[in-house]
Amino acid sequence: MEPDAVEIRVVACLVEKQRTTPDAYPLSLNALRLACNQSTNRDPVVDYDEAAVSEALRRLALRGWTRLASGAGSRARKYRHLLPEALGIGDDELALLAVLMLRGPQTPGELKQRSERLHSFADLAAVQETLERLLERELVVRHPRRPGQKEERYEQVLGGASAEDDQAGASTAPEAEDLAAAPDDAAPAYDEDRLERLERELTELRAQVATRAPRARSSARPPALRGTRKV
């Protein structure tokens, strides 16, 4: 079973906080909940409770993506991620993957700007090269350019199918169903209307022909011969 959106958000927050606030890492359950629900650098913004985050951590531990980091005598349980070991990726790949998990599909330019606190990329070419490696690993997918945009967009697929593909499929599915149903449901009504119209036009045509026929016969009759005067 693929990780769900809560799992993706939880493990991505662990990656982000490890890089941006190392003194507070590993994270407690409450700190992780706050990280998941923060309104900045998140798309979408969510409102998970501790039960949802705790259950996501349990599933992530079973995948080998996270583990409990606090000791037996610790006052609060704390958690860390294990993504580099679990996925076999480097720091640069992990940084881009985390930003994609936190903020959805993005262009290379957006990724370079938004990943600066997690990893320092020399230039846009370095970002592109890292994305290509992630593409080869099938950890991200590439989307076509949007109207008005110069760059292609990339999306992480650790949770399975692309969200954009899902949306596209959902928007086209009703149309496909309507088209598939049209021959069975709409065709009979259309045929009946067409037959009625044809029958009405045929009746009117016959009436017109019947009305014009006597006139045509009278006009076609040759004129009577008049007698000729003998000389």
Summed up, the domain count is 2
Gap between N and C termini, in Å?
Answer: 121 Å
- In the CATH hierarchy, the third-tier topology of the largest domain is known as Arc Repressor Mutant, subunit A
Mean pLDDT metric: 83
What is the makeup of the main sheet? 3 strands, antiparallel
What CATH architecture label of the largest domain applies?
A: Orthogonal Bundle
By CATH reckoning, the class of the largest domain would read Mainly Alpha
So what's the overall shape? elongated
Helix content: 55-70%
SS element count, helices:
8
Main sheet strand line-up: 1-3-2
* Count of individual beta strands: 5
Please tell me how large the radius of gyration is. 37 Å
Please report which band the strand proportion falls in: under 5%, 5-15%, 15-25%, 25-35%, 35-45% or over 45%: 5-15%
Write the H/E string, N to C.
HEHHEEHHHHEEH
Plain-language structure description:
The chain is mainly alpha-helical and 231 residues long. It folds into two domains: 5-160, Arc Repressor Mutant, subunit A (Orthogonal Bundle); 161-212. It is 58% helix and 7% strand. The chain contains eight helices and five strands, in the order αβααββααααββα. The protein has helices at 5-20, 29-37, 50-63, 83-87, 91-103, 108-114, 124-136, 163-220, and strands at 27-28, 66-68, 78-81, 140-143, 153-156. The strands form two sheets. The protein has a three-stranded antiparallel beta sheet with strand order 1-3-2. The protein has a two-stranded antiparallel sheet with strand order 4-5. It is elongated.
